[in-house]
Amino acid sequence: MKAAPKPIPAQSGSAARVLPVFLVFLTMGFGDAVNPLVGLAREQFGLSNFAAQLSPFAMPLISLMYIMWISCRPPRNDLSK
Hints:
- It is a single chain.
- It contains three helices and no strands.
- The protein is an all-alpha fold.
- It starts with 13 loop residues before the first helix and ends in a 9-residue tail after the last helix.
């Protein structure tokens, strides 16, 4: 029989153990905020349901494209100027 695993002490990497919980709550908060924002965008700008549902994904998508552009471009050699 295998022995039961030893419990991890509370102080050993406690920030690493709590980070996933914080990320889950952040995701849940974003999910809760999307529905009112979609309704507001649909009413204010006269968008269709499809366009209003895509609007919350615009900023993360633009940010991802910018990060990919920054990481793929060649490094600058004239940093001393």
